[in-house]
Amino acid sequence: MESCGTAEDSRRVQNAQLFLAVQKEFGSFDSYIWQFVGGRPRQNRLRRHEQLPARTEQSDAMSKDLAKRGFKFVGSTICYAFMQATGMVNDHLVDCFDTRNWANTIARGPGARHYAVESPRR
Q1: What are the Cα distances from residue 53, in Å, to 16, 19, 32, 92?
Q2: Do the Cβ atoms of 110 and 54 come closer than 8 Å?
Q3: Measured between alpha carbons, how far is 90 from 113 in angstroms, rounded to an integer?
Q4: 11-43: per-residue pLDDT in tens?
């Protein structure tokens, strides 16, 4: 689909420019973003899916700071999903087969990559 110069496109360009400004201010976007979890992945100890949060104090703070800087589309729920996707927070249930693998990733600290292992066959 071709872009027609919509308002959404201009917001994406604006977010990209703001991203570059954050990189310049903090040395990297990584340095900036990890401050919201104290520089280490947060390991939640959830037992049931009903306990999974849609947002947290940390994602609220991230959302507020990003919005203050002029970013768009950065609500707390979006920020929390970003935190989950990038390994800033681990919401694997304690009985999940992949929890031990995540514990090893957390021990390696920020920037460590998590590679999911194949699910055990049943």
Answers
A1: 28, 26, 23, 12
A2: no
A3: 13
A4: 889 999 999 999 999 999 999 999 999 998 887
